[in-house]
């Protein structure tokens, strides 16, 4: 009974202090914080036109399913809680991994895009026509984005807005630099576009070569991190299937061990990846 009154008192104090601790924000203020991050994550993963609520719904569904399966298999609330958190975070982790793979696979293609734009500029094509032509002559994995740009240009005839939508669709730091270079050339004109694109192509090619060599040598770091995180939980699952193991991990001390182990696993995994990962280029023009 004392615990109940204490909990009610703490809840009352939090409710009284909530206007100062958590000030009310309008939907317009909350949208850039939550929806903006998810929308940017979807853009970088190649799903720029997907609704923002989709990964949230998938995450909640995955968390409920993972918690249910874990609880039915082990009967442990702590393991079910950890599984629920992992299930909720899985879609966002998959989106980050897909975005990383897309950046890696496209890294060597941006220099080709620059060379094709240089060739089109030398042939006397206008900037909208040169970019639209990449829907047919560009790298195959990038053609859908340039085809959408061509459709936008045909519908609106406004290069600047179409270029901004192209930048959001490609969602890559190198693509941002290329698109911003084209926008500036379109707005102020000048005869240095080919020289700028050639310098940008050389820079992107050198960066891609260096990163490929370093990441090939550091690929074992990610594999070791995954093995180091997954292996203890496989052992825990096997032990929890036994009655004595379920009884041990179902005790208060066992719950603390499971929760602390989950926190340590996440921290160690993130720290290992942070120490063995190259800094990713930022999208300064996003």
TrEMBL record:
It is found in: Cell membrane. The keyword Cell membrane applies. It is a multi-pass membrane protein. Keywords: Cell membrane, Membrane, Transmembrane, Transmembrane helix. The keyword Chloroplast does not apply. InterPro entries: T2SS_GspF_dom. It comes from Microbacterium memoriense. Pfam families: T2SSF. Residues 114-239 form the Type II secretion system protein GspF domain. This is Type II secretion system F family protein. The chain crosses the membrane at residues 71-95, 220-241, 247-269.
């Amino acid at each position: 009974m004392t615990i109940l009154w204490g909990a009610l008192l703490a809840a009352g104090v939090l409710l009284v202090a909530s206007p100062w601790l958590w000030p009310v924000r309008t939907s317009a203020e909350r949208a850039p914080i939550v929806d903006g991050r998810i929308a940017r994550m979807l853009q970088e993963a190649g799903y720029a036109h997907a609704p923002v609520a989709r990964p949230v719904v998938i995450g909640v569904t995955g968390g409920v399913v993972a918690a249910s399966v874990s609880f039915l298999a082990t009967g442990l609330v702590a393991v079910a809680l950890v599984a629920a958190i992992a299930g909720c975070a899985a879609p966002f982790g998959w989106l980050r991994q897909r975005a990383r793979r897309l950046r890696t696979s496209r890294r060597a293609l941006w220099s080709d895009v620059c060379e094709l734009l240089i060739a089109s500029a030398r042939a006397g094509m206008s900037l909208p026509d040169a970019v639209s032509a990449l829907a047919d002559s560009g790298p195959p994995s990038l053609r859908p984005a340039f085809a959408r740009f061509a459709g936008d240009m045909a519908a609106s005839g406004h290069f600047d807005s179409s270029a901004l939508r192209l930048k959001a669709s490609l969602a890559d730091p190198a693509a941002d630099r290329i698109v911003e270079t084209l926008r500036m050339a379109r707005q102020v004109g000048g005869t240095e576009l080919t020289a700028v694109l050639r310098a940008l192509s050389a820079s992107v090619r050198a960066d891609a070569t260096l990163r490929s060599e370093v990441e090939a040598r550091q690929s074992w770091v990610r594999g070791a991190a995954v093995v180091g995180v997954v292996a203890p939980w496989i052992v825990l699952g096997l032990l929890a299937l036994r009655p004595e193991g379920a009884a041990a991990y179902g005790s208060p001390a066992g719950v603390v061990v499971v929760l602390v182990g989950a926190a340590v696993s996440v921290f160690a995994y993130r720290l290992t990846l942070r120490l063995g990962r190259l800094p990713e280029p930022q999208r300064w023009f996003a």
